[in-house]
Write the structure tokens for this entry.
Amino acid sequence: MIKPLNDNVLLEKIPSEKKVGSIILTKEEKSANVATVIAVGPGLKDEKGNLVPVAIKAGQKAIYREYSGTEYEQDGHKYILIREEDILAIVE
């Protein structure tokens, strides 16, 4: 498994298509970039050397900035390694 460093967050993409039998249904309209948080780094140190932890936690769903991060694929799963600042919102 991947362990993010610093303020990086590992997201697993949520597929935007739905499979019914052998037919794949896709959405015509563009959906938000939503992903599940798999792992988070420890955070960054401030100017005094204190660790500032990442605000998002594993298991939450997040909306992230389009065209940011590094895509990675392993065992058929699509991941994005992204900085915390590129996460726009937590989906509740």
